[in-house]
Amino acid sequence: MKKPGGGKTGAPGGKQNSGRGLEERSLRTRVKTAKGRKLSSKLWLERQLNDPYVKRAKAEGYASRAAYKLIEIDDRHHLLSRGGRVIDLGAAPGGWTQVSVARTGSTGEDIRVVGIDYLEMAPVAGAAILQLDFLDASAPALLMEALGGHAPDLVLSDMAAPTVGHRQTDHLRTMYLVEVALDFALTVLKPGGHFLTKTFQGGTEGELLNLMKRNFRTVQHVKPPASRDGSVEIYLLAKGFKGKSARPETDDADGAEEGG
Q1: For 193-223, what is each residue's pLDDT tens digit?
Q2: How much is the mean pLDDT over the chain?
Q3: Based on the number of CB atoms within 10 Å of its own CB, is 72 exposed (0-12), middle (13-18) or buried (19 or more)?
Q4: CA-closest candidate to residue 244, choices 196, 178, 206, 192
Q5: Main-chain dihedrals φ then ψ at residue 63, nearest 5 degrees
Q6: What is the dihedral of CA 144, 146, 151, 154, to 10 degrees?
Q7: Is the dihedral of CA 244, 248, 253, 258 positive or negative?
Q8: Phi/psi of residue 217, each to 5°?
Q9: Which distant-in-sequence residues (6+ apart) come within 8 Å of 59 by Cβ?
Q10: Which of the 8 DSSP states describes residue 134?
């Protein structure tokens, strides 16, 4: 990812004005530390203001920079197809849902994309949005009902648990969301369908990977360019669902592959 410009500007030829040299100014936007604002908040805001993906998302009407993560993954791995059906877990603020609608051709008259999040989000034309915690017992049935009872071709999960500041605890909480998202995908996916979920580098459990390999033809980690360089997030992509008959743990995982 190309980093924002950090070049300097000044008077041409080093000329001075009113007996005083013009100060060089960085093109990078810097945020002053306001009273009560933590340094971490200042750095986050500064990063947002200088992030080219954030600027591009605003210019192109996407709800978040995360839209480009899915765009880049789909451009390479071809997950979204015209007429395909998609369930988007952890959909807020809506970037992945917007991309899914555009690439499947989902419309209000023919809903092919359904998103769910416990956070409120703006409506996305062409998609059905459920404001509900995915961990609620009623969520799976409501998602399938919103999709007209059709099996999805793709289950997406960009869910992440709210952090508490303890690294191991945060890791376990997010990995639990990966597990429940996978269990849902194995229950509802159409044979040949795909599953994409957020996880963390070095954090995917062997047992979880083995389960995916038993049920999908290929399994690999992917990190799109739009994922920030310093971020530990990575995406786990499972393609070619073998169908519900492949779920018994005695099945072998031949044919699966791992790698970025």
Answers
A1: 999 999 876 665 788 999 999 999 999 999 9
A2: 79
A3: middle
A4: 192
A5: -70, -25
A6: -100
A7: positive
A8: -75, -35
A9: none
A10: T
Domains in the chain and their CATH numbers? 32-61 (no CATH), 64-246 (3.40.50.150)
Q: Residue 225 is which amino acid? A: P
Mean local confidence (pLDDT), 177-189: 97
Residue type, position 136, single letter: D
How many other C-beta atoms can be found within 10 angstroms of the C-beta atom of residue 66?
A: 21
Please compute the mean of the pLDDT values over residues 126-153 and round it to a whole number.
98
**Residue keyed to tokens 């530390």:** 33
Rounded Cα distance, 54 and 47, in Å: 10
Assessment of whether the complete model's pTM goes beyond 0.85: no
Annotated active-site positions, please? 198
**Any idea which residue has 């920079």 for tokens?**
65
